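One-letter codes give the sequence; backbone shape is given numerically. An example follows:

. . .
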Amino acid sequence: MSVKSELPAFQQYQIAFASHIRNPQLHKRPRGVEARRMKVYNELLFNNLEGFLLACFPVLRQVLGKRKWTRLVRDFFTAHRCHTPFFRQIPDEFVHYLKNERGARAEDPAFLQDLAHYEWVELMLSVSNKETNFALIDAQGDLMQGQPALNPVLTLQSYDYPVHRISPRFKPTAEQKEETHFAILRNSEDEVKFILINPVSMRLLSLLQATALSGKEVLLQIASEMKHPDPQVVLAGGLEIMQSLRDSQVILGTWHIELPDTRRKNW
């Protein structure tokens, strides 16, 4: 005896009703529901779901085209089981589905996961509840001698494809991979900004996130990793990078030196 047959009749009906809404082509319309009324439910739920996804992934929709996009949304609607009741988190579930459940499919572009994640990050940062405690930061602090303070609403992302250039006219193939790095932040105007950075800047910011070193100490470590013959060149170039990142609000200044590390990390 199946688990479904052991359920009360009303629950069996609910399952049949929901299964038909998820995939009308695979599951028959439950008895007692007029086709016209059932169609209203089908279209209402699917269109609402698609609307939430479209708001977050407009470029992906343009690149795929209407037919492939609709099929992708239908696959997600049919196969994925969301674990949140919040509409805002539907894009989170969609990104999870693409990465962990969908698997490789011939009809999907090679950059599908990268582009979806790139668009989703903007939503993730725009709704972040992290705030800056400027009392802990010296906005004009010495970036070389002090410990640079990063924007709390910041994420570092690397992609296999140049996602910022993907459009209906540019759809890179698997042979056109191009590792691309971004510092993505929310600035003081509550705007999410994507800053294209090179591998050295990526390493610099990664070390600043992971350590309590001064800017100079981080740059000397990078010079050592690069086996650069003249560390002073790395120091000079690194200072320019940090100053530019401060202008972009990736770096907000330096931590006040009198504050203990525990307060720096828990702001």
The radius of gyration is 24 Å. The chain is about 50% helix and 10% strand. The chain has a mean pLDDT of 90. Residues 132-267 form a domain with the Outer Surface Protein A; domain 3 fold (CATH 3.90.930.50).
